[in-house]
Amino acid sequence: MREDLSVVPRAGYREVWDRSHSQRDEFWLEAAERIHWDTAPRTALEQRSETEWRWFPDGTLNVCENALDRHVAAGRGDTTALIADSAMTGTQIRLTYTELRDKVALFAGVLSGLGVTRGDRVLIYCPMTSEAVIAMLACARIGAIHSVVFGGFAANELATRIDDAKPSVIVTSSGGLEPGRQVRYLPLVHRALEICGESASGVRAVVVADREHVPGSAADYAEDGAGATWYDWETLVAGATPAAPVPMRANDPLYILYTSGTTGSPKGIVRDSGGYAVALSWVMRGIYDFGPGDTIFTASDVGWVVGHSFIVYGPLIAGGTTVLYEGKPVGTPDAGAFWRVLAETGAKILSTAPTALRAIRREDPELTELAKYDLKNLRAIYLAGERMDPETWHWLRDGLGVPVVDHWWQTETGWPICANPLGIEELQVKAGSTTVPMPGYDVRIVDAAGADITAPDVEGNIAIKLPLPPGGMLEIWGSKQRFIDSYLAAFPGYYASGDAGHFDEDGHLFVMGRTDDVINVAGHRLSTGSLEEVLTQHHAVAECAVIGIADALKGQRAAGFVTVARGNDISSEALAAELVALIRERVGPVASFRDVTVLNRLPKTRSGKILRKTMRQIVDGETYTVPATIEDPGVIDEFIAALSTTVSAPATNVVTLPR
Length: 659
Ligand code: COA
Ligand code: AMP
Prior knowledge:
Blueprint: H1 13-22, H2 24-32, E1 45-49, E2 52-55, E3 60-61, H3 63-76, E4 80-86, E5 91-96, H4 97-113, E6 121-125, H5 130-142, E7 145-148, H6 155-165, E8 169-173, E9 175-178, E10 181-184, H7 185-196, E11 205-209, E12 229-232, H8 233-238, E13 248-249, E14 253-259, E15 267-272, H9 274-286, E16 295-299, H10 305-317, E17 321-326, H11 337-345, E18 349-352, H12 354-363, E19 380-383, H13 390-400, E20 404-406, E21 418-419, E22 436-437, E23 443-446, E24 460-465, E25 475-476, H14 480-488, E26 494-503, E27 509-514, E28 518-521, E29 524-527, H15 528-535, E30 541-551, E31 555-564, H16 572-586, E32 595-599, H17 612-619, H18 634-642, E33 647-648
Parallel strand pairs: 4-17, 6-7, 6-8, 8-11, 11-12, 16-17, 16-18, 18-19, 19-20, 31-32
Antiparallel strand pairs: 1-2, 3-13, 4-5, 9-10, 14-15, 15-25, 21-22, 23-24, 24-26, 26-27, 28-29, 30-31, 32-33
The site of adenosine monophosphate has 20 residues, from strand 26 and strand 27.
């Protein structure tokens, strides 16, 4: 093991990328030396079949030990590991590596005491408080597989994930804080368990962190009678014995993280332990130029992959300080919120979604708030989650005077596919481009038949030559076949990213949008299919289509188009209000669903396919083509006329769920 985490071999980007392919195994085995192994791997890659591969098959390690204990052992126990800053409560807590290790070991003891053992699933539904991080690392410590669910999802979405992951324990909190409201989690967990019924019979315990700012505690559910026993976090911790890290096989799953696909049922992306640890260790140095002594502020949520990789595992494996932020970029209390956190924590890196910066720009275009803070440590800003518009990119780079790195990646890959690798070499960047493929990623543009498009500036499907590098997804939880069908079948020999784009003549990649029914709303990935499924549950809806339309702030937003079932006498306003409330209740506020247009009929082809692309182009004011196969060309004029009747219903926070 290489103990000095501050050095990375110096070589130019091109040289490093080439070597990651020409001497692939040596490259990754060398990267693996930065990790503490119980058994160091001798084999880099085991190719089991064309569609199945495993990294470091003979290695054993514990990821939590790599994130905490090894730093304590190396004398960095007094270094701050975690700064939890809440703009919502005006509090900030700091935990050193020793303190965080001790809390994690105790909570790991709690989980063991509840009978959780290696391979068991633990579902974590927590706000952005330190308990979320502690619970994740505690799972990793004892070999349990965590599945974190984003707090902005409602009971139904939670139920879908409980049903699929079959956790034995749920870790939650009395709630989160959003501007102007409390998000009470316990009724949502209770409701989700009710929805699951028998399929949640394996949930033995619900552990509740009682937050003073949000009412609700385990005691409220003591008489629940629905199977699981509800426990108070602090009470369990008070009686727990610390648990030691358990050596795991490199291929043992570390976590399942659900993400939206084209259907209503989310895909449980399975991440391994060893490949992920090695990849993140490489990324923190190679892409972020981050190591011991550095602080990173990733303004995302632990419920997303960005939070997993760059709030929790990456920075801690690298031995630096990570910031967990509960709040918004604006309004909590102003557009200087991010600059305050950067100044107070001395962060070197800010990583966030473009939406957040558009929000700041809208409130404070002249960056007047910036003058109040000293950002002397800030070296670079990284953006991901959605396309970064060139205008905001220029505004940010000119205003902050640091490199702005737009990097492209997905829940599936776990770390950036394309970036500007500042830790290796700062490349020339272009607004609108995610720069170049990272080591291990052989990125191609392919046409519909899977043939390579080698000419520059020609748009096609972005595909990655197999195998994916370490840290990439292993499979979809519960279905190897679904993994193949969803990602590997479209272009044999490649992983289909679901994104479209092109390389320019300098080999810089431009990611332009999705090729499927996935949309990115404020960097949150949603499936229009799942929204459609909910809309059709309304008795007055005959047919519907949900499309992602351009939104100046959130990048995209979901717009619903519905036809009314015969015999229903309901005004467009009333229907829109009910549909907005329904999506909020079934999917959650994160869907930001507001716009409903009632149509007499949906534009379709003769074979019945809804013309979603044409609809989107019309709504976005783009040039559109009407396919020759359209059922009746007159429907387009009807559609355009109906757009003036779109109802934008206000979001209602009143979602009454039975206790
Ligand atoms: N728990 C409960 N509800 C949540 C939530 C959470 N963790 N996160 C968001 N929500 C709710 C919000 O309160 C909002 O509800 P509302 O309709 O009652 O206002 C809704 O979900 C939509 O949230 P969001 O898309 O985040 O919008 P917002 O209005 O709260 O904030 C911005 C808008 C402009 C501040 C947004 O730019 C932003 O920064 N979003 C976060 C971007 C991000 O981190 N993406 C993750 C990908 S890396
Ligand atoms: P998620 O899995 O939630 O991280 O979402 C991944 C998707 O977000 C990608 O497939 C892209 O569609 C989009 N995305 C992420 N990063 C970028 C980026 N830098 N530029 C453009 N789109 C991006």
